[in-house]
Amino acid sequence: MKPDKEKAAFWSIVASVVITVGKGAAGLSTGSLALISDAAHSLLDVAATTMTYLAIRAASKPADEEHHYGHGKVESIAALIETAFLFLLSGAVAIEGIRRLWTTQPPIEVHWLAIAVLVGSIIIDSWRWWSLSRIAKATGSEALAADALHFSSDLINSALVLAAFGAVAMGYPQADAFVAVGVAVFIAVAGFRLARRTIDTLLDAAPAGSAQAIRALIEDISGVVTVDTIRVRPVGATLFADIEISVARTMSLEQLSAIKSQIIASVQNTYTDATVTVTATPKALDEETVLERVLLISAKRRVPVHHVTVQDISGSLSVSLDVEVDGRLSLAKAHAIASDLEHAIREELGDATEVETHIEPLVVSSLMGRTITGAPHDAIAASLAKHAVASGKIEDIHNVRVRETGHGFVVNYHCRVDPENNVTSVHEAVDRLEHQVRAEFPNIVRIVSHSEPLRSQA
Q: Taking the domains of the chain in order of start, what are their residue ranges?
């Protein structure tokens, strides 16, 4: 569970008020410009921490119809305003310090109360700096990081004022003015660092090294061909990453979804509050086969194909395939589908490619049926067994099922074949068997076989 940013900001307000009152009273009682400037810096901290508290509350609002990326940049705006205060304060303190160096000033009274206030301020500043830095890092809050910077500068300022008191006590009264100018310079430098970081955030500058780190994570993921673009920008505590990759165009949607999920998980494992968007562009790879390219084209058009044959005829490419269309379509409509597919294949493989399609009917609706037993079932099973023996290759016809539909019989069966036979020879043998059985039983509209390896006789 992350620390409570609002609670941290509230306690910063309390600490700033206590420090400011103590330093202001001690500075006025001693007449030390260094201490008074330090009190003014602490007064700025009161305004800054109050602004931080309000900004954190506003930034915690969720995204809405007008602010699609949330309200996180409210923190950056608050930090920028704090920066302006820092520059104004450093300028005023520097001018007064230089004036005192050139004019005679009444001696500074070093009082134990002022020293006690400074020591107490250093302790409180150390506590707030450590606490805010830790919470800012854990939550990614720019406003709290700015607050931590304020308290760290307060810490150093108080230490410098103590040094000035020591120098005054040793007989160097101008040390107070010198320290005041040094405090002004330190405030200006701290303000510049804060301003640069805040402006980078408002201009959507990517955190240093984040794009390179994300690219390294993605390039190790299998299936990513190239990482084309990575855009990263922080919005409050959230890091938005827009990633564009290229993948093989033959990749399935399931594979692509898995790759996107892996990328998002990998980035969020490194950047906990990251919101990641992944866009994939399909890309043709050099190792794609002609078969893969043909199947991809048909899949895009949702046209089932099979028996794809690719030939090299004296250097020219020839592709033939079976195209399955709704058997209820007219020949004219079916031919148009086949012609469109042929045209797309030629566009992909080259105009000189010879493409031939064979149109087959595809049953696209479910068939209502009932299981047939008795004489019709036994006769069909016997025919399958008889022609299997005659084939000399197919054995052990089993699990025969016959279903009667409105279009005729649908037969399913299992058989066994020598496992050393290749798929092509097995398919040819099974195809001959099915044609022979259908010749005996014309009312069979479909035979579906499942070939299994023949079991060892050992």
A: 5-202, 210-283, 290-362, 369-453
Contacts of 193 (CB under 8 A, 6+ apart): 149
Spatial CA neighbour of 35 closest among 163, 200, 221: 163
Do the Cβ atoms of 417 and 393 come closer than 8 Å? yes
Supply the CATH classification number for the domain 369-453.
Answer: 3.30.70.1350
pLDDT tens, position by position, 382-408:
999 999 999 989 999 999 999 998 888
Residue of 104, 128, 163, 156 whose CA lies nearest to 12: 128
Task: Give the pTM.
Answer: 0.49
DSSP percent split of the chain into helix, strand, coil, nearest 5: 55, 20, 20
DSSP strands (E only) in 375-457: 394-405, 408-417, 444-453
Decide yes or no: CATH 3.30.70.1350 for domain 290-362: yes
Task: Enumerate the β-bridge partners of residue 243.
Answer: 230, 278
* Half-sphere exposure (Cβ direction) of 258: Cα atoms closer than 13 Å: 8
Q: Which CATH architecture has domain 5-202?
A: Up-down Bundle (1.20)
Strands 354-362 and 316-326: parallel
| Distance in angstroms (rounded) separating the CA atoms of residues 57 and 193 | 25
User: What pLDDT digit, counting tens, does each position of 135-180 carry?
Assistant: 777 776 666 776 776 677 777 777 777 777 777 667 676 666 777 6
The answer for residues whose C-beta is within 8 angstroms of residue 90's C-beta and 6 or more apart is 184, 185, 187, 188, 191
> From CA 33, how far away is CA 27, in angstroms rounded?
7
Q: Rounded to an integer, what is the distance from CA 271 to the centroid of its chain?
A: 10
Q: With beta carbons less than 8 A apart as the criterion, state whether 303 and 337 touch.
A: yes
Which of 87, 85, 93, 115 is closest to 178 using CA atoms? 93
Of 224, 344, 219, 230, which is closest to residue 281 (Cα–Cα)?
A: 224
Between the CA atoms of 307, 310, 313 and 317, what dihedral angle is there, to the nearest 10 degrees?
Answer: 130
Q: Which two tokens stand for residue 388?
A: 């299997």
Distance CA 325, CA 338 (A): 9
